[in-house]
C-alpha cells in the first residue's frame, strides 16, 4: 500500500498507511481482525502459561539426581495427596481450561461468520469480476462500465463481487476490506466487501496460479459516493479522442493492426464477441487513466506502455499478447494514441 495522492478521477483521497489485515478499513475486515486478535491473545496467554509451568517444573527438579526426577518433590504426606494434586492439574488444565477456550473461540467465530456475508446483502453494488490468468476484467452491469485491473467502489456501501474466471483459478484478497475468495472457471462465487473510509488498497492473489502469481494485483479504490458516481459517469462514455498527429496516426495503427482482435476502445472498435473468452484482452477505452499496466506489474508511464506494446511477455512472463509486428514509428504513434485515452 503506497502513498496516495490524487486518484485517477482527480478526487483527492486521504493517504492510507500500510494497513492490510492488521488495519481493517471496513466492517467485514474488522470482524475478521477482531477474531484474529482474540485468538492470538488467547494463544499467547496459554503459551506463556504452559512455558512458565514447564520452567517451574524443571527448576524444582534441577538439583535432584537424574534417578530421582521421577519422584515428586511436593513432599507428599501420602500417595493419595500426590494423586489428588495430579488429578486436579489434569482436570483443570487438560479439560476445563481447553473447554472454556474452545467455547469462547467458537462463539467468537460464529459472531465473525455472521458479520461476513456470503451472498449479496440488500442495497449492495454488484460488480462482475472475471479472472484471467494475467489480468482482471471488471464490469459494472448496472452502470454499463467495463474496465480492467482496477476496482472502484463507493464508501459505506456493501459491494458484492461476482467472481468467475475464464482460464485460471485466482483467489482475490483485499486484506484491508475483507476475506479472500476463489474465482473459478465453472461458476460464480460472491465476495462481499465494504470500505468505511476512502482509500486505496492493494490486493493479493492468494492461490498459486502459475507464472506471475505474485504479480496479479488489482488496485482497489474506495471513494465517497459522489466521487464514485463521477468516476462511473466518466467511464460510461468513450474517452475524448486524443489529439495530435502522432495520436491520430496511432489510432489508425490500432484499428488496422491485430490489437482489435482482443482489445476494445469504446467508440472506435467493437469489443471481442465473448468478453469472458480467454482470448480477450483488457478493455482499453480509458487505458491512460489507469495507474498501472499488466495487473499492477509496471506503472502506466509512456516508457512502460511502450515496452508493453512492443512485447508484453518481456515485461510479464507468459502474457498471451504477442510481440508487436510494427515499426518503431508505428509503435511510437500507438503509444501516443493509447497514452491519450484518458
Ligand atoms: Cu492468481 Cu495467484
Explain the layout of strands and helices.
Blueprint: H1 27-60, H2 79-115, E1 125-132, E2 135-140, E3 145-148, E4 150-154, E5 159-165, E6 170-173, E7 180-183, E8 189-193, E9 199-201, E10 204-205, E11 219-223, H3 225-236, H4 245-256, H5 259-262, E12 292-293, E13 298-299, H6 302-315, H7 328-338
Parallel strand pairs: 1-5, 4-11
Antiparallel strand pairs: 1-2, 2-3, 5-8, 6-7, 6-10, 9-11, 12-13
Helix pairs in contact: 1-2, 4-7, 6-7
Bound molecules: dinuclear copper ion.
Label this structure with key terms.
single chain, 342 residues, alpha+beta, five-stranded mixed β-sheet, three-stranded mixed β-sheet, 7 helices, 13 strands, 36% helix, 17% strand, disordered N terminus, binds dinuclear copper ion
Amino acid at each position: 500500500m503506497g502513498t496516495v495522492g490524487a486518484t485517477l478521477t482527480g478526487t483527492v483521497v486521504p493517504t492510507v498507511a500500510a494497513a492490510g489485515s492488521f488495519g481493517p478499513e471496513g466492517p467485514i475486515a474488522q470482524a475478521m481482525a477482531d477474531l484474529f486478535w482474540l485468538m492470538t491473545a488467547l494463544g499467547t496467554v496459554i503459551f506463556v502459561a504452559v512455558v512458565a509451568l514447564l520452567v517451574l517444573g524443571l527448576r524444582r527438579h534441577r538439583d535432584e539426581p537424574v534417578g530421582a526426577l521421577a519422584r515428586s518433590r511436593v513432599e507428599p504426606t501420602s500417595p493419595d495427596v500426590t494423586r489428588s494434586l495430579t488429578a486436579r492439574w489434569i482436570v483443570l488444565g487438560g479439560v476445563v481450561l481447553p473447554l472454556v477456550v474452545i467455547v469462547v473461540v467458537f462463539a467468537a467465530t460464529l459472531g465473525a461468520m455472521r458479520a461476513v456475508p456470503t451472498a449479496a446483502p440488500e442495497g449492495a453494488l454488484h460488480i462482475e469480476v472475471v479472472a484471467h490468468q494475467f489480468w482482471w476484467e471488471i464490469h459494472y452491469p448496472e452502470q454499463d462500465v467495463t474496465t480492467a485491473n482496477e476496482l472502484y467502489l463507493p464508501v459505506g456501501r456493501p459491494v458484492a463481487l461476482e467472481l468467475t474466471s475464464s482460464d485460471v483459478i485466482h483467489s482475490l484478497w483485499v486484506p484491508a476490506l475483507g476475506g479472500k475468495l476463489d474465482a473459478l472457471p465453472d461458476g460464480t462465487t460472491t465476495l462481499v466487501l465494504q470500505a468505511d473510509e476512502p482509500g486505496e488498497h492493494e490486493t493479493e492473489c492468494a492461490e498459486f496460479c502459475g507464472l506471475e502469481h505474485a504479480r496479479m494485483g488489482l488496485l482497489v479504490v474506495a471513494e465517497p459516493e459522489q466521487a464514485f458516481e463521477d468516476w462511473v459517469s466518466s467511464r460510461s462514455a468513450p474517452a475524448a479522442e486524443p489529439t495530435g498527429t502522432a495520436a491520430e496516426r496511432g489510432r489508425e495503427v490500432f484499428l488496422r493492426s491485430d490489437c482489435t482482435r482482443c482489445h476494445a476502445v469504446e467508440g472506435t472498435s467493437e469489443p471481442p464477441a465473448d468478453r469472458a473468452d480467454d482470448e480477450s484482452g483488457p478493455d482499453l477505452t480509458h487505458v491512460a487513466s489507469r495507474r498501472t499496466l499488466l495487473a499492477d506489474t509496471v506503472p502506466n508511464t509512456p516508457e512502460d506502455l511502450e515496452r508493453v506494446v512492443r512485447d508484453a511477455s518481456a515485461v510479464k512472463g507468459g502474457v498471451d499478447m504477442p510481440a508487436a509486428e510494427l515499426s518503431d514509428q508505428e509503435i511510437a504513434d500507438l503509444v501516443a494514441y493509447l497514452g491519450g485515452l484518458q
